[in-house]
Specification:
The chain is of the alpha/beta class. The longest helix has 19 residues.
């Protein structure tokens, strides 16, 4: 049963429970899996797929024939939906593209700037098996394609029949995935990080997964880059007396059904709304297909917080830094000015979080666990790298050589100073 709290009588640490402890048992299991994949490569992958996913595979890679079949087999209406969603995501993320820059001084005597290059190979992890998330395929792949990534390798666990969902395969084809492999779990992350006979080694791994996937990503970080360590899903709704309790309850439950550890929080200045939402949650819960998961989430992590003002509600939200923030109020753009920490912000009463999950365009791969205080949604920027460049003529360097040598000497780095000095002690051009 969800409870209502007075904001002045509850501490922030009690509003949202975030377990920051590392599971040592999982860490040891994942470390062993990674070590085994490094040593035995494809042989280990086949064994782990049989052990963890219950399938004996003849081949790890999905064939072009299977992908073409998926496009033909998929429901035409859903295929059209995927195409439209992909277009929306592409149009939004196009605005994140940027060029490098060049600065010149002294009529070309000094040239410097920044060069932006795409990461060459990216691995995308997509949850699979009993679950199927084609939306994750779109959200992770399209920004990478826009950034100019040449090779996008997708890994996803197969179902009991050894096959990948046609919806997943169709989304991969529509969004531009290069190669697809039927592997999941920590072993898939290990394969992407280190490479095997079949799976190419990549430079960065993105995408959500369970605790084993998240732990594997944490371990291989440094060998490859990763997007983030994603925790349980979160939603925080700031609502006023004009909000519809049916809408608010439904939006809270839309996140609660993700995971038993997910959190759904309402912060409102209306006691009447708080009571109505509490009643509505209990009314809607039994009707959900994932009611058991949603109920555990609501009972353990659901909260309704009463505040004196909406401004106080936003302050609480900023302190929590939620993954998803809904401003379900009469004047959302006014409150938006005060929002500092949130992964993605949904404005108004007809902009539910689910709209962003699937269709609108902004990315749904978002910082969790309070990391929205310092990190951002997945974007084109995650798939590029920046290099600076610098050019000085002899004359330009000569104008500043004494200052550079003095600077280097004060840091005790004589060889640095000497690398400048040798250029002006009779050295030939």
């Amino acid at each position: 049963m969800i409870s209502i709290y007075d904001s002045k009588k509850i501490a922030l640490k009690d509003i949202i429970k975030r377990d920051e402890k590392q599971n040592d048992d999982v860490f040891l299991q994942v470390s062993e899996i990674i070590k085994n994949v490094c040593a035995r490569k494809d042989e280990a992958l086949f064994e782990y797929e049989k052990k963890f996913d219950g399938v004996e595979l003849d081949c790890l890679e999905v064939s072009e024939k299977e992908i073409t079949y998926a496009l033909d087999k998929i429901d035409p209406y859903f295929r059209e939906t995927l195409e439209i969603a992909a277009g929306n995501i592409r149009e939004f993320h196009k605005n994140q593209l940027r060029n490098g820059f060049t600065m010149t001084e002294g009529e070309g005597a000094i040239v410097m700037g920044q060069k932006i290059s795409p990461i060459e190979k990216v691995g995308i992890y997509v949850p699979g098996g009993t679950a199927s998330y084609p939306s994750s395929v779109l959200m992770n792949t399209i920004p990478a394609k826009l950034a100019g990534v040449e090779e996008i390798v997708m890994v996803t666990p197969p179902g009991d029949d050894g096959k990948i969902s046609v919806n997943i395969l169709a989304a991969a084809k529509i969004s531009g995935v290069t190669r697809i492999f039927k592997i999941g779990g920590a072993q898939a992350i290990a394969a992407l990080a280190y490479g095997t006979e079949s799976v190419p080694k990549v430079d960065k791994i993105v995408g959500p997964g369970n605790i084993f996937v998240a732990t594997a990503k944490r371990i291989v970080f440094g060998i490859v880059d990763i997007d983030m360590i994603a925790g349980p899903s979160e939603i925080l709704i700031v609502a006023d007396e004009t909000s519809n309790p049916v809408f608010v309850a439904a939006d809270m439950l839309s996140q609660a059904e993700h995971d038993r550890f997910s959190s759904a929080i309402l912060v409102t200045n209306s006691e009447e709304l708080a009571n109505n939402v509490k009643h509505e949650i209990q009314k809607q819960l039994p009707l959900l297909s994932r009611k058991s998961i949603a109920r555990d989430s609501i009972d353990n992590n659901g909260k309704i917080i009463l505040t004196s003002t909406l401004q106080e509600a936003v302050k609480i939200s900023n302190a929590i830094a939620p993954e998803h923030l809904e401003l379900c109020v009469e004047a959302p753009f006014e409150l938006l000015k005060n929002v500092k920490n949130a992964g993605s912000i949904f404005l108004g009463k007809y902009t539910p979080e689910a709209l962003g999950d699937y269709f609108a365009g902004p990315n749904h791969v978002l910082p969790t666990g309070g990391t929205a205080r310092f990190s951002s949604p997945l974007s084109v920027d995650d798939f590029v790298k920046k290099s600076s460049f610098l050019y000085y003529t002899k004359e330009a360097l000569e104008l500043v050589n004494s200052r550079i040598m003095d600077f280097a000497s004060r840091e005790g780095l004589g060889a640095h100073a000497n690398s400048i000095a040798v250029r002006f002690k009779g050295a030939r051009d």
